[in-house]
Amino acid sequence: MKPIHPILYLATGNPHKVDEFAQLLAGLPISLESANALGGMPVVDETAKTFEGNALLKAQALYRQAPRGTWVMADDSGLETDALGGGPGVLSARFAGDNASDADNCALLLQQMQATASAERSARFRCVLALLGPNSSKALFFSGACEGTIASKPTGMGGFGYDPLFIPTGYQASFAALAPEIKASISHRAEAIKKFCDWLKHFLNVSTPFPS
């Protein structure tokens, strides 16, 4: 008889994120389900000024419709550029407007940084995960970052968001041009998920009580 694994619902309607999480969590004793398994991701007004705050808002929204005894995780992530004082930051997904496409956001970023010298184009992708556990309203947070620079033009056909413009430190290619397994090993989301995985292994092995 196969063991029953804990169910983790991912609070997102973005299929790219679901696929990335599935790859990063592969092999762990946990069953990953998207928000679609609960009828879809509720509309969330992301009004917080931090990644942590917005991740919590999304986790709480899906948690309210999740079955008891399951876990819900949400992430909020985005691009921070030093030349723009940390922007677009929490506004990354709607940098060029509420209904902006990835191409719109990338175009606006390039426009606002067109006069920025190559030595001043430092940036980072940042990710914060908010985890709500069984019968708990108190969240745990896991964060990760990936340092790099903003290119002068998009390259690569993979990835999503600002991936075609972001060149991670130590590489010559953008996230969109790197092999998926390389991106998965160095990304901001990978670092945050690694911290979650380390916690999860400890939690499952020694039955550490989830905060209540």
In short:
With 212 residues, the protein is of the alpha/beta class. Helices cover 28% and strands 21% of the residues. The chain has one domain (7-206): Maf protein (Alpha-Beta Complex).
Describe this structure in words.
The structure is a single chain. The chain is built from 5 helices and 6 strands. It has 212 residues and is an alpha/beta fold. It has one domain (7-206): Maf protein. Helix 1 links the parallel strand 1 (7-10) and strand 2 (31-34). Helix 4 (180-186) crosses helix 5 (188-206). It is globular, with a radius of gyration of 18 Å. It starts with 6 loop residues before the first strand and ends in a 6-residue tail after the last helix.
Helix content: 25-40%
CATH class: Alpha Beta
Amino-to-carboxy terminus distance: 31 Å
Q: How are helices and strands ordered from N to C?
A: EHEHEHEEEHH
How many structural domains does the protein architecture include? 1
Determine the number of helices (DSSP H or I, runs of at least 4 residues): 5
* Rounded mean pLDDT score: 90
CATH topology: Maf protein
Strand order of the largest sheet: 2-1-3-4-5-6
Q: Major beta sheet, specifics?
A: 6 strands, mixed
Per DSSP E runs of 2 or more residues, the count of β-strands stands at 6
| Strand-residue proportion | 15-25%
- Radius of gyration based on Cα positions: 18 Å
Low-confidence stretches: none
Shape label: globular
Structural category is alpha/beta
- Second CATH tier, the architecture: Alpha-Beta Complex
